[in-house]
Every structure is written in structure tokens, then in C-alpha cells.
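subagent[fold] <- orchestrator: predict structure for attached chain, return C-alpha cells only, no commentary.
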Amino acid sequence: MRVKNSRCGTGGANRALIDNTLCPANENVYAFLDKVFTEVAQMFPFEYIHIGGDEAAKNFWAKSDAVKTLMQREGLRNMEEVQSYFVKRAEKIVQSKGKKLMGWDEILEGGLPPEASVMSWRGMAGGIEAAKQGHHVVMAPMDYTYVDLMQGDPLVEPPEFATLRLNQSYKFEPVPEGVDPNLILGGEACLWSEHTTNMRAGEYLLWPRGLAVAESVWSPKEKKNWPGFVKRVENQFDRLDVEKIKYSRSMYDAAFIPSIDENGQLKVELQTEIPGLDIYYSFDETNPDEYYPKYEKALLIPKDALHLKVITYRDGKPIGKQINMPVEELLKRTRTKKG
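subagent[fold] -> orchestrator:
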């Protein structure tokens, strides 16, 4: 967010367009925030105001004479403490509206405001640290709850920077060991809309991973059961079909684990997320069905093969997508692992 006359005094206008973090040394910023939080508090009757605080660019601050003066006056040693100074002032403004402040786990850096709550997205560590300091936490770790990520093989999914399969989402445990459970407010599934082009695409990303996060948050850890969850998900598929809601069936697709064996030959292990599926494959450019070889153990890729084509079956019927995996892509993935 940029605010007129809110930039620190150095760097130039072009710089501000790239690195436009609000200037913590400018009193106009806090007057502006007071107006914004006043309006937000009136619009939403909820207990918390989430101020963000994640991925705040600090290189502009480091070049700012105004920030350097602020650091000297307030005894701030680094840019993280500058951000902490800003967030602590923001908390006072939020509290003046009768609300509580919440921010992403970066607000831990430099020191938390006295009564702030933390939403932990960079894994569980930030939430654990905040709870150990006596603060309330919402767990939203990217490696379990970011449902805007790919949910199957990148070859057949809308492109994103990472993959989060359904069984990984189901492993989410919002209350980690050694943490006071009274400080964990809950968990959150995050669906960021920057790369979500329409509502149908959003539905596809949310379901069924939203169900996995929900059950992880609402069910005791000892009662969670992956095979049982799969059956419940399939029951929900029937409901989603009736409601014409789009959802992903990637849990039925095969997963590829390529490697190079001791003889320098490319080999591939195939896996399925859910039990009871059979995988059939071909190397001859024809489309496999249940009469083709059934996957039993790691496959050595023939030197003349162009693709490994696979499809999953259950009870004699196709259930997953046919994936036509280029051999070159498998080789690329082994190099990526090594790199």
C-alpha cells in the first residue's frame, strides 16, 4: 500500500513504486492508519483486525535517513526492530478501536507487541514460538493449508510454484506437541486469488483439500484416519456433483518418483495417495488400460522410450487421469533434486 507523503525521505519516486512499504518514521502514516482502522472496525463486527505484516520489503527503509534517525532515537538495532516498532504502534491504534491485532508470523521478528496474535504461514515454527511467548495463534502453515497450490502432478495441474496433495493436507495438526492448546485459536485454509482466474478454478483448488483442513481442525488427532477420510470425501463428491460444484479428483492420480540407479539408468517409482488403486502403464506410445502391465515395483525406463503413460484403476474401472509423462521431464526432475 502506498500513501501520499508517506514515503521516507530518500530513494526517489521510481524506487517507491517497487518497494512501497509504509514509512515507520513518518507520523502521517499513523494518522492514515487511524482513519483506515476506524472504518474497518465500523464495517466488521469481529474481534480481530489482521494487519498483514508478511514479506515487508525493508531495503527502502535501510536507505532512509528518516528511518536512521528513528532508529537512533528509539534504540532500534536492525530493520526487524524497525518493523516491530511499526507493528507495536499499529497495535495501539487497533486497540483504540476496541479490537485486537493479528499479523502473520513475520511480526515475531524484532519482538511481538504485548497482546498481538500470530497467524503462522511459514510452517509451524512461528506459531509455536508465539505460543511459547504466551500469545494466541492461528495455524495456517503453507506446507499443509495453502490450497492454492497444485494438488497433483505439475504436468496435469494448473501451474503454481509448489504442490500440496490431499494426504499432506490431512496430516495438518493445528495443536503441536509441547504447546498450550488454549493458545491455539484454530487453523485456516488459505486460497490466495492472485492466480485464481475464476470461481470455478477456485472451487477446484478448495475441494476436497478444504475438507482435509476442516477435519484436521475439528477432529481430535487420535480419531483421524486417512482411509476413513477418503470414504467420507467420496461421499462429499456425490453432494458436490448435485450442487454442480467443481472439485479436484487428483487424489486418484499416480505420483512419479524418478531417480538414477547405480548403473546410471533412469528409474521411476509410482505411488497412489489412496489405498486400493492399481496402476497400469505403457512405454510404447499407446494408451494403457487394465490389460497393460500392472505396476508392481520400480520401473527401469527403456532407452528408446519417449513417454511413460500411466492410469489408475479401482475394481476394474478407470478412476484417475491418464498421465503421459515425457521421459525428458523425468530426467529433468532427477537433475532438479540433485541441484
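orchestrator: received. Logging for downstream: Residues 253-338 form a domain with the Immunoglobulin-like fold (CATH 2.60.40). Residues 1-7, 9-17 have pLDDT under 50 and may be disordered.
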